[in-house]
Amino acid sequence: MRLFGVLGALVAALFFGSLVIGPAGLGLGESLRALVSGQGGAVVLVMQEIRLPRALLGLMTGAALGLSGAAMQGYLRNPLAEPGLIGVSASAALGAVLSLQTGVAAAFALALPLAALGGAAVAVLLILGLAGPRGGALALILAGVAISALAAALTSLVLNLSPNPFAAMEIVYWMMGSLADRSMDHVWLAAPFLVLGLVLLASLGRSLDALTLGEDAAASMGVNLARLRLVLVGGTALAVGASVSVAGAIGFVGLVVPHVLRPLVGAQPSRLLPASALGGAAVVLAADIAVRLIAPDQDLKLGVLTALIGAPFFLHLIWRLRGSEA
Amino acid sequence: MTLLSLDNLTVRRGLCPVVDDVTLTVEKGEFVGLIGPNGAGKTSLLRAALGLLPHEGRSSLMALSPRQRAQAAAFLPQGREIAWPVSVEALVTLGRGVHPGAGSAEDARAVGLALDRMGLQSYRARSATALSGGEQARVLIARALAQDTPLLLADEPVAGLDPEAQLKTMEVFAELAGEGRGVVASIHDLGLAARSCTRLVLMQAGRVVADGPPRDVLSDDNLARVFGVRGFHAETPDGPVFQPMGVVR
Fold it and tell me: Tell me, what's the pLDDT at A323?
């Protein structure tokens, strides 16, 4: 319980930090007053239309990535699993890339995130079709790998055929993942899907606990494995699809956060789920503050930073696993 | 009272039946040893009885909802899987998840009793995955005991245990039967089965070929026909002793 208190306080502090840190150089009191006041003016605009949506999106996407990572690892009983494994991230990215390429993204503000959500939806239909209602964990992984590979190939094709270098650059930058320049419209678009996904995934705690003993034991303890897989895939698609649609691809959070927190919750999946949601939110909020502080003028991308920190950590994880299995 | 009844249960793998038209009942107070050579269909029979395998025929457990079934029968699978380094106590407590009211005094009592029975009280706080294979097997048995069901179905519960843990586990299962529960355990060690079970069910090629008191099922004829071995029986002050002695074919 103390861990949840600490994580909650950390998320609250980082959320607050995300609100008050930025290039506009506003005073602390000034910016907080602007957040609650209804009056117009530059400061109010910065706070309500730039920083608040950015902080909210950091909170939501971080929680989505952390929670879906913990749920995916619990379901596959593998600490190397991550939410992108079922192909939702790659497909959502493909949807976004297509909207950029075709110019639909420029037609109205939410065209790109809507296209990304569409991509995620197609991936879910494909994966449920391929892995079937009776398929096991292996079928799910293989279908996910195939869908990811196909989506990545199609994304490359779009880049390949891109008529001008600027369009290609825009696509590449978008794919790096960022929370900069998002509006409250993005928040309102993503929130319903994301929250529904979080609620679905958070309901899986007891089933994932039982699954610690394997599929047969869990089924004999009353766990409906087909329903578990459906809720897992649906919840992950909603949460991760919505988060990719507004923030692009933010790698390694869903992989690393559950892994770091696992020993702190006694390795129980039901306790790891909420801890990873909080931990994911903290990591994304912290990374998003860091990109503003490290290179305020360079527009350093959030996804680049999380991958820069996450990939070496992943190597460390593999190194340790290798040692324990030898 | 009948705790389990199977009627004409058949499991097919492709066209070939791996469990072939088995009819069987298990009453309160019975400790049934399910014996037979590798591939006789013991595991498939247990899994089908619980609805974990598609089957024809009827298992009385399938008339229950999944939740009721989990409260009626605990299952100890052959594959001993512990995916995460949870504590022994947390793992054994998983067995309580099938009952309403988590964290109740009844949960604490059942977990304590299960740990006592498997001699694991001093292991409570240890990480389950850090234990030896045999110790993990005992922890998993304790989990099934903590589920506190009228019926326990165990697939090779004593395989790979040291002699003390084997005898202890068989004693615990016999105690459960003595309390009026039913236990069905597939067992390869015919000596242990003969010593502790109240009844043996002998399977061969998916069919039940003998069913009754251990001394009758382990007849010279059955042993030669099904296992291809001769056996030695003796009555001792410590109970019946059986030992396979030699290969006959």
Answer: 65
Domain that holds residue A61: 2-320
Q: Check: CB of residue A66 under 8 Å from CB of residue A236.
A: no
Note the pLDDT tens digit of each residue in B91-142: 999 999 999 877 789 999 999 999 999 999 999 999 999 999 999 999 999 9
Question: Do the Cβ atoms of A216 and B83 come within 8 Å?
Answer: no
Question: Which of A206, A219, A224 lies closest to B97 in CB terms?
Answer: A206
**A interface test, pick of B82, B91, B94 with most A CB neighbours within 10 Å:** B94
Q: Which two tokens stand for residue A279?
A: 């931990």
pLDDT(A112) > 50: yes
Q: Which of A135-149, A201-215, B160-174, B199-213 shows the lowest mean pLDDT across its residues? A: A135-149
Q: Does A217 reach chain B within 8 Å, measured CB to CB?
A: yes
Q: Which residue of A has its CA nearest to B87?
A: A266
pLDDT at A324 over 70: no
Considering the domain boundaries, does residue A110 fall inside one?
A: yes
Q: Domains, chain B, ranges and CATH?
A: 2-80+149-247 (3.40.50.300)
Q: Give the pLDDT of residue B74.
A: 97
Residues B85-99: pLDDT tens digits?
999 999 999 999 999
d(CA A215, CA B77): 10
Residue A304 to residue A322: CA distance in whole angstroms: 27
> What does the pLDDT read at residue A326?
41
State whether B94 and A219 contact (CB < 8 Å): no
- Residue A13 has which token pair? 């502090």
Chain B residues close to A271, C-beta within 8 Å:
none
Confidence check: pLDDT of A249 > 90: no
Total domains in the fold of chain A = 1
B145 vs A contacts (CB less than 8 Å): none
Give me the CATH number covering residue A7: 1.10.3470.10
Q: Pick from A221, A227, A320 the residue to mutate for testing the B interface (most B CBs within 10 Å).
A: A221
Nearest to B77 among A216, A262, A266 (CB): A216
- Contact present, A213 and B78 (Cβ < 8 Å): no
Contact B52, B11 (CB under 8 A): no
> Running DSSP on this structure, what letter comes out for residue A109?
T
**pLDDT value, residue A271:** 96
- The mean pLDDT of A95-112, rounded to a whole number, is 86
* CA dist list (Å): A195 to A26, A202, A234, B53: 31, 10, 12, 36
